[in-house]
Amino acid sequence: MKVLIDQNEINSRVIALGRELAQEYQGRPLTIIGILAGSLVLLADLIRAIDVPHQVGLLQASSYRGKSTKPGELFVNLDYLPDLSERDVLLVDDIFDTGKTMQKVMAQINEQEPRSLKTAVLLWKEEATEVDFGPDYHCFKIPDHFVVGYGLDFNNEYRHLPFIASLEGSDLV
Ligand code: 5GP
Ligand code: MG
Which atom of ligand 1 is nearest to 148's Cα? Predict the structure, then answer.
């Protein structure tokens, strides 16, 4: 495992993004929606860095990848989602890869007709993106390598690591 982004870099970038978002959403009815489970760690740090009132909700998107690093069919569970009408919604996820997860989740959120909808992620694999948009906010762009830590898992392990590391070869079994 090789550390790509250390704990200090993540912390200062997340704090800076929180300040930027606080300015953007000041005086607006903000609801931040975290996509489970990968966004957990970013969500916890980011909401404490956004110094304006806001609500928090969750939804689950899972892609039956099992032991694989390649996603399968996407399943979206909206059971825990609060009412989003008249709300400015910010969707938070760990990583924007092909962008298909975000595209599908955004379509479902838009059915609730929020006042606005934007997206924020920790990591953006821009060269792997297959949709015709990117995240509105991102903390770091990374190359197209499989990474873990700070919420990101491999086979549901490694989420607790306070840094981002890439897994290669013998780690991926
Ligand atoms: P997308 O739909 O944008 O291709 O993929 C988004 C989802 O795939 C993320 O929420 C994440 O669960 C997973 N994913 C994509 N790239 C990585 C990666 O490098 N590491 C991990 N752990 N998950 C990833
Ligand atoms: Mg995910």
Answer: 22
Beta strand 116-124 with 137-141 is parallel
Q: How far apart are CA 54 and CA 50, in angstroms?
A: 8
User: Considering Cα of 16, then 91, then 122, then 133, what sign does the dihedral take?
Assistant: negative
Residue 95 beta carbon below 6 angstroms from any ligand 1 atom:
yes
**Two tokens, residue 40:** 């957990």
pTM of the complete model: 0.93
The full set of domains in the chain, from first to last, is: 2-172 (3.40.50.2020)
Q: Among residues 45, 88, 93, 97, which one is catalytic?
A: 97
pLDDT in tens, the chain (173 residues): 999 999 999 999 999 999 999 999 999 999 999 999 999 999 999 999 999 999 999 999 987 665 555 666 888 999 989 999 999 999 999 999 999 999 999 999 999 999 999 999 999 999 999 999 999 999 999 999 999 999 999 999 999 999 999 987 777 76
Distance CA 47, CA 49 (A): 5
